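Below: protein 1.
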Amino acid sequence: HMVVREKVGRKRYIAFETVEGANLTRSRLSRALADRLCDELPDSRIEVIFIVEGKGIVRSDHRGVKRTVEILNAFEAHTDGFKLKTLKTSGTIKKLRKKYFPGYESSANR
């Protein structure tokens, strides 16, 4: 079991909230992240899981997580059209759902 897990890389989930740019969509954030990341973390497999009511979750692998958090916090409203603030990083999506998306436990399975 461990071998497979090691090879694939441990996943990290990052909860964030939108500080500015309330109409931010999942696809728009995905594109913005891809633009920033393609040069420096080409195989980082970062994915925007969902965004609801100005908060969302991004998945990253454990190696890229620190940089992903930096990038998420570095978006600026005047250049990117939105500004985010990361809330917490977790190894499981369940914990973040409970804490930040209490109403979306079952409905947000994608």
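Below: protein 2.
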Amino acid sequence: VVNQGSNTVTIISTKNYNVVATVPVGTSPCAVAFGNNRFTVVNRGSNDVTFIDGISFTVMKTLAVGTTPVAVAFGNDHFVVGAPEIMPVSGSSTKPAGSAGETEKFSKPP
């Protein structure tokens, strides 16, 4: 759950619906996606995305993206951040994706 007023994301267990963690992110978070055991949070106010580890619930990295990002989707090992320009972000790396052969892969969780 994105919490725009407090610039945090609340992670809730789907097993018992308890709050697992509340994680600080960028300014005005507005969307979140989950894939490859990572949460990707779109921060509209700070023009970036925050990657959160899906096991430890800690921030892995924050990455600048296009102006006023508003959405994120996950598929084929990539996150796509919706902004006035669409910016693919590798789901297997925390940097913008280049051509198909330039994407690094996240290591698989144990």
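The chain has a mean pLDDT of 79.
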